[in-house]
Amino acid sequence: MSSPNSSPTLSPSSTPPDSPVSSLRTLSPTPTVLEPSFFVFPDLLSHCPFSLTYHDDGDAIAADSLEWIMSYLPHFTQNKVAALRGLQAGELTAYCFNNCASDHLRVVSDFMNFLFHLDDVSDGHLARDAEGLGNCVMNAFEWPDDYRPVRGQLGGIQIQENSAAKLARDFWSRCIRDCAPAVQQRFKSHMHMFFEAVHQQALYRASDIVPDFDTYVEMRRETSGCKPVFDLIEYSLDMELPDAVMEHPVIVALNDGTNDLVTWSNDLFSYNVEQSRGDTHNMICVFMINDGLSLQQAVDRIGEMCKRTIDTFVENQARVPSWGDCIDRDVKLYVNGLQEWIVGSLHWSFMTTRYFGDNGGVVRATRIVELLSQESTKA
Predict the structure, then answer these.
(1) How many CA atoms lie within 13 A of 80 on its CB side?
(2) Cys-Cys crosslink for 313: which of 217, 257, 283, 379, Cβ 3.0 to 4.6 Å?
(3) 0.70 cut: is pTM over it?
């Protein structure tokens, strides 16, 4: 490890090369042009130097976690149940948290299932609902022992706890049994920022606003949910890193770089489904609308950004300072946990049915993504 004062290689520049930063823009009609029917996916897997590992108890715990979340959602339609099964959130957890105790893996797996459910729920709410949803869920994190009525969705008082809050309370009451105090505090803070960003995202959507690149990157680092997920790396491995470590520029750069890789690549993976329902909260749309790029040009630019981010992560790994043997051991485990997220999320994204249905293997092999028609994914 290098000295604490070594200069970090920061995350890739916010502004991509040859890309003017635009102010906030509203969507406007565009001239009729011949629309593409497909795009070529960047080859990110061959650029990723990390080995893929899976938890020994991953399958069994994934199955248990799936049954857990389904028990809270009895109203789900057959299509939604099928989507939940095809999501494979538990399998993603087993790839990214492959070195922890099985009981901790189960808790983290439950949170991952909850987080994806929360993402789907928040995507379906208007701007005025997103804030209320956050109030209800944060209620469970602040008062895990009992529900306290808060201002809920649509501005009214939420007398009864909704399903999202019940899921959060169930997960959190088990997590805090042996989650270190500093980790709990970071997690709650990051969840609060997550909901603030989701609310802002909803306001943009309601006003048909596409943010500029820098604004989008900062917002996406929050709406991705990666920050609280990365907090659970500490929980999963029974550690509590000091604030001075977590706030060091190299560790911040490693966290931001992992977040960016996961979220930027996710924008590539999720674009097809999102464009089919008219959702523009995606980096591809930011480049197409603000910079006038074609679909393939935007995809290629993001692919190169992802590759540079992986390279920068490797460089920053070599610049991690030393804080003494005891802390260094935990820091190494934590950074390895970030690394597992890079490789695990890339591979999993072709396995889940969330992005390519049953064609993930074909897309992985051919890198051809056939565009869905508008609203073809509506359940």
Answers:
(1) 11
(2) 257
(3) yes
